[in-house]
Design brief:
Helices cover 38% and strands 5% of the residues. The chain is mostly helical and 440 residues long. The protein has a five-stranded parallel beta sheet with strand order 2-1-3-4-5, sandwiched between helices.
């Protein structure tokens, strides 16, 4: 009976016992997520990204122009009939042209300067350096201190971030000349420090009197603020790095003041010290300015330029190019024979050597009467036209500033205020932006 009972006993109502948890552990462990594994995954990802960044940084960076300069970008322009100027192209790279790029600058409201007060954008934009330099040299204003308008085609008004990118394409931008060229360097610093109040001067060591005398427009007053000007961006990096909007290692703009011919030997030594004998990873750009200290003597200016070109290519043979007549001509020793010149040029490099010559500002009403004949506006106009033709033969490009400055405010009849110098600096940035750095 016991057998039958056991055989036909009803099944137990209790659930079947589950396997012990440790028997499933090997299968589940491969899919589980633990804090330790999360940390290891994050560390591995960070290591991969760090290694990739290191390899990119160690690889020499080849400078490039933006795509709108190297590629054809078609657009449908809005044409307004009977309008003197057409609206700027509706393209991304022109966005900075139609807004006040100084809106975030220090002392913007106190100095009361907008970038739109200095430049009014229009279409078309210049597409090559020749048309750009011609347009910027031959433009004008509709009234005193009105926005400057180039003739025929427009130039860019870059944002500070764009200026930083343009300067980063060059190992060094060397500016050689007088106090007007020093003010170009000062204006560069205003733009890359985003400071309209003290961007051009060494405000980190100012006395209370200097902070009052060298503020806003008066940063370029040569009587009160000449020694306080910034001569190189390296001084900003050293003394006030937080004020620089660009990465410190990517910009290097410097002026060496060489005001007259003959050029003293110590000034030439300073130029040699700036130039490496071996080709750098990024190109050098040169901006020259000369004239007033030799009383607009054309031959003296050409001798001054020839001397600087000769010293530069002797110190840095990679500059070149061999087709450029770099052999200097001075009154004291005359011209070398064509055979000797050809032989000496054959030893020069064929590198990328961008050079720009700026002629002096127009004369203002405050210019002393004693200079009105030798350095007045007639003499300045003749000088600008002659220099343009002469430097072209030397492979040097030219930017005239007479048209830009004739209706500008000048402290002493010679030197522009902050507004005029910012326009001049922006025109130089436009030239730098057009240079074919990818050919270096």
């Amino acid at each position: 009976m016991a057998y039958l009972w056991d055989k036909h006993a009803p099944a137990s109502s209790s659930p079947i016992a589950s396997p012990p948890p440790w028997t499933l552990a090997p299968k589940m462990s491969s899919w589980s997520v633990s804090p330790r594994r999360i940390v290891l995954f994050v560390l591995a990802t960070a290591l991969v990204y760090s290694l990739n960044a290191f390899l990119l940084a160690s690889k020499p960076h080849k400078p490039q122009r933006p795509s709108y300069l190297t590629e054809h970008l078609p657009y449908n322009s809005t044409v307004l009939p009977h309008a003197a100027f057409q609206p700027p192209e509706a393209l991304p790279h022109r966005n900075a042209d139609i807004v006040d790029t100084f809106a975030s600058y220090k002392y913007r409201n106190t100095c009361n300067i907008s970038s739109l007060d200095l430049h009014s954008p229009f279409a078309p934009l210049c597409t090559d350096r020749k048309s750009l330099l011609t347009a910027m040299s031959s433009g004008g204003r509709i009234g005193h201190d009105a926005p400057y308008m180039p003739r025929g085609c427009d130039f860019r008004w870059f944002s500070t971030e764009e200026i930083c990118e343009v300067l980063s394409r060059f190992e060094k931008v060397i500016i050689l000349g007088d106090s007007m060229m020093r003010h170009v360097v000062g204006s560069f610093n205003v733009l890359i420090r985003k400071d309209l109040g003290y961007g051009a001067v060494t405000d980190w060591n100012f006395s209370p009197e200097e902070r009052q005398d060298c503020f806003c427009n008066y940063q370029f007053n040569v009587k009160a603020c000449s020694v306080q000007g910034i001569f190189k961006t390296g001084d900003v990096v050293k003394n006030d790095p937080e004020s620089l909007a660009c990465p410190a290692s990517t910009v290097d703009v410097i002026i060496e003041q060489m005001i007259r011919f003959p050029i003293p030997s110590d000034e030439l030594d300073r130029l040699r010290a700036l130039l490496p004998s071996e080709k750098p990873t990024r190109p050098y750009a040169f901006v020259f300015g000369h004239g007033l200290w030799n009383d607009l003597d054309l031959q003296a200016t050409l001798d001054w330029l020839d001397t600087l070109l000769d010293v530069s290519v002797q110190q840095a043979p990679w500059l070149g190019p061999p087709s450029q007549p770099l052999i200097p001509h001075t009154r004291s020793r005359g011209r070398k024979s064509a055979v000797a010149a050809k032989g000496e040029r054959s030893k020069q490099g064929s590198g990328f050597w961008p050079r720009l010559f700026l002629t002096p500002n127009a004369a203002g009403k405050e210019k002393p009467d004693e200079w009105l004949v030798s350095q007045g506006n007639k003499a300045l106009m003749i000088f600008e036209e002659a220099v343009r033709e002469e430097v072209k033969r030397k492979g040097v490009e030219h930017l005239g500033t007479w048209n830009m400055s004739i209706q500008s405010n000048k402290f002493d009849g010679v030197h522009l205020d902050l507004r005029g110098n910012l326009i001049k600096a922006m025109m130089v940035v436009n030239w730098l932006n057009m240079l074919e750095v990818e050919d270096f």
